[in-house]
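A quick aside before the break. I want you to see a complete sequence-to-structure record at least once, exactly as it would be stored in a machine-readable document. Don't worry about memorizing anything.
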Amino acid sequence: MNDDDIDGDEERRRVPAELRGYLEELVRRVRAVCGARVVSVVTVGSVALGDYRHGRSDVDVVVVLEPDLPGSALTELARELAHPRLPCPAAGLELVVYGADVAASTSGGAGFLLNLNTGPLLAERADRNPTGAAAFWFVIDRSIAHRAGVTLWGAPARRAIAEPAPAGVFAALRAAVREHADGAGHLADNRVLNGCRAVVFCRTGRWRAKRAAARETAAAEPGFRPLLEAALRSFERPRSAADALPAAEVRAFLAWAGERVEEAAAAAGG
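That is the input. The structure line, written in tokens, reads:
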């Protein structure tokens, strides 16, 4: 990892021991393929927010490159980082590559050059076309990256990745809650905890780790406490052993979370 980081030793301590060797090798491969065009490599998600759970969490990485990188290099990068060519010790790797121009903008779009999903528990994806992609995942990740990203190499996250405009963040939260309300392809506990994270952001303006957000929401909303505590217990289990939560209660909670997002967006003019 790199001495160009601000408080680099502290940044490195935030990376869980189970991931350090993997992320060091990931950075080495990114630099080997992309050379001097690499601006920054940043980890976001549960690592950045201090709630990585080995065996349950993905590892989320944002790579910022000078935008003139040839497309053939992106194809090579996806191949070099794919599991098991680079064995992923987490549930999966979700890696997004942006051009430095997009990363430095306040755009509410997806805007990626490469969206790579790989790992033992993820469906393989190496998408280079952001058109039609669900932009909200990318907007939320860039917001977290700007505020809390852990710089693995290169320019500090706050300098390389801009905070998306507030209207874009609220639009992303609306879409995220709708996605989890639909439920397709998501574990019930993760749907509930993501709803909590959206609510806490709307109330505080800060991103919290999912479990911390669930505990905070449970304390403030006793009517939802049994569901949120059940989601937290389930989240302690491996993905394959997650509990089934009451579907009607999950829908009711996410409908309520959606209302809180709409209220906060209206108050902020978003």
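Two observations worth writing down. Residues 166-267 form one domain. The chain has two domains: 8-160, 166-267. We'll return to this after the break.
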